[in-house]
Amino acid sequence: MSFDLPASIERDLERYAQAEHITPAEAVVKFVQSGLKSNKRKAATSQPSETDWDKLQIIDPGFAFFEKMPDQLIDTIESTSRRIRTERLSARA
Amino acid sequence: MRKALLDTSTYLDLRRAGKSRRQLWAQNTLRHAIAYRDEYPKLTISAYTVFEALEGIYRDAIPGADEEFITKVLPGFEIVYPDQKVLALGAKINATLAVGRQSIGIVDALIAATAIHHDLTLVMANTRHFPRVIAAGFPLTLTNWREA
Asked: Under CATH, domain B4-143 is a member of which superfamily?
């Protein structure tokens, strides 16, 4: 890949490369990597929209069922699951 | 994205995510679930998750809830039931971990076996138990939807 950079950016990159004692090509790579990382962080921290949350109704087959159940049912299922998974079988007499 | 087996902990996270919208784990869980459902028509759970959900329903003794859960909710999932090969692999995992004093319990061993046998990524929030299966040399693939 090759790119044409605006002259002003090219000058900034050369100055940065000199200051960091790296080649201009390495400076370009550093800037691109930094930009991509920042973009990834932004994507990871952006909050889902209302439309996204509404999708839970489609994604979860139990959505309508659990919505009309008491909230404690989910807690009961969770504690049941935890108990089942920590049960140890004991030898029969 | 590989097809996934949702453990009970992740399904419960999905249930609670809507009421915890400000929490990062809830947002991450939602994002993963949306991305997954874009590729796969149904969420896949194991028979053990069905068992745990039904036991919870019976413990709370909500009239008619068991029938509605069985007839209206469960058909919306793909459910993986254990067969002889899963039971054998589960026994092998359980024995290997027990000998190494790293037991994770029979149910978790069977869930790990289900994921391995059916070539599914196990999606779980129990980060304490399942990594032991991998450490013991079994080809289990794990992911946690709470993380980005």
From this structure: 5'-nuclease (3.40.50.1010)
